[in-house]
Write a structure and sequence with these properties.
With 382 residues, the protein is of the alpha/beta class. Helix content is 66%, strand content 6%. It has 2 domains: 238 residues, no CATH class; 109 residues, abc type-2 transporter like domain (abc type-2 transporter like fold, 3-Layer(aba) Sandwich). Helix 3 links the parallel strand 1 and strand 2.
Length: 382
């Protein structure tokens, strides 16, 4: 058995590497996803163009403008007081407009609430939300410092004698972001690319490798040999499990060396979790091969499986923000569990003590998928 299995695995690897379509499928998806999510996809909002309309023209308003200009999140564009902010936003010249009305400094000096208007282009809701919070942070810092100076001037005054030293009580918050201190979306997306690559590559190549035998008529020739169905099934799937592990090593290496993504966990634990995840993907590819008769059908079926799994995995959209029905569906999606494991290993350094429920879910789903796929595979071969 083992000798026959070894020859099948060797034959499958040689055939996969020799077939141009297979070579493209093994190389292009990992490369494209790495480039796209490493360089092109960036949800970090920086250097937003802000039109600053100063209708007060006082030192206080100019100081606030300097705060916006000094922030790494904004590029300040001066605009005349009579400028139309709606027109600037409509044309896309700026992403936000900050307008200070006359009397701004006077209200601050009196201890009254001074208002300013910030208009934000909400076409991109994610960018608009970040710009709004960033602008609010600049204004909040400026307001707190101005309030402290105003209270100090009122309590101490400008006496000729030594002024009375009065301590003004304050509340100061010290923020600290764990796991991703710089809040780089690259650190969040690239670990998830590993899961997407494994799904896309292993399911598609497994399904197409088996369907190809049917399409060219060599499946019947294999069945008249002493090869047993279980040996044929293992020989067809194990090579692509090896391909999946190679992709894991490749993407992890690129993430660490090229994109500088932090890796705080154990690679052995990540590899063990990947083996469990490959049980589900190879089982799904085997199941698709029992349904499809041509390679085009296999590719279409893979796409129909991959797209919902990708959207419901939490790769881009948090699962907790989905409708309740969609959240229930994610519990049967193996990509959801592996996505949590990969990101936890990279960013948090967690291991089996934290992610054993996800590993158990992968093992259960993988066992069920493989059992159903093996049953249908044998039945079709018979």
């Amino acid at each position: 058995m083992w000798d026959r299995l070894r020859h099948i695995i060797r034959k499958e690897l040689l055939q996969a590497l020799r077939e141009p379509r297979m070579r493209v499928m093994l190389i292009m998806p990992p490369v494209l996803q790495l480039l796209i999510f490493g360089y092109a996809v960036n949800l970090d909002v920086e250097h937003s163009r802000v039109a600053f309309i100063d209708g007060d023209r006082t030192p206080a308003s100019r100081e606030l403008r300097a705060r916006f200009a000094g922030s790494r999140y904004f590029v300040v564009v001066d605009a005349a007081a009579e400028s139309d902010p709606d027109l600037m936003l409509d044309r896309g010249d700026v992403q936000a407009v900050a307008r200070i009305l006359p009397g701004f400094a006077r209200d601050l000096a009196r201890g009254q609430t001074a208002t300013m208007q910030i208009l934000i282009d909400g076409t991109n809701s994610n960018a608009a939300s970040l710009i709004s919070s960033q602008a609010a942070g600049v204004v909040s810092t400026y307001s707190a410092e101005w309030l402290a100076r105003w209270q100090q001037d009122r309590l101490v005054g400008r006496a000729v004698l030594e002024p009375l030293r009065v301590v003004i009580p304050r509340v100061r918050s010290a923020d600290r972001v764990w796991f991703n201190p710089d809040l780089l979306s690259r650190n969040y997306f690239i670990p998830g690319v590993i899961a997407n690559i494994l799904v896309l590559v292993t399911i598609m190549v497994t399904a197409m490798a088996i369907v190809r035998e049917k399409e060219i008529g060599t499946m019947e020739q294999l069945m008249v040999t002493p090869i047993q169905p279980i040996e044929l099934m293992l020989g067809k799937t194990l090579p692509f499990a090896l391909v999946g592990m190679v992709n894991l090593v490749m993407v992890t290496g690129v993430a660490l060396l090229l994109f500088k993504v932090p890796f705080r966990g154990s690679f052995l634990f990540l590899a063990a979790s990947t083996v469990l995840f490959l049980m589900t993907t190879l089982g799904a590819g085997l199941f698709i091969s029992t349904l499809a008769q041509t390679q085009q059908q296999a590719m279409l079926s893979t796409s129909m499986f991959f797209q919902p799994a990708f959207m419901l995995s939490g790769f881009t959209f948090p699962i907790r923000n989905m409708p309740e029905m969609a959240q229930w569906i994610t519990y049967i999606n193996p990509l959801r569990y592996y996505m949590e494991i990969v990101r936890g290993v990279f960013l948090k350094g967690n291991g089996a003590e934290t992610y054993w429920p996800q590993m158990l879910a992968l093992f259960t789903i993988g066992t069920v998928i493989l059992a159903v796929s093996v049953f249908r595979f044998k039945k079709r071969l018979d």
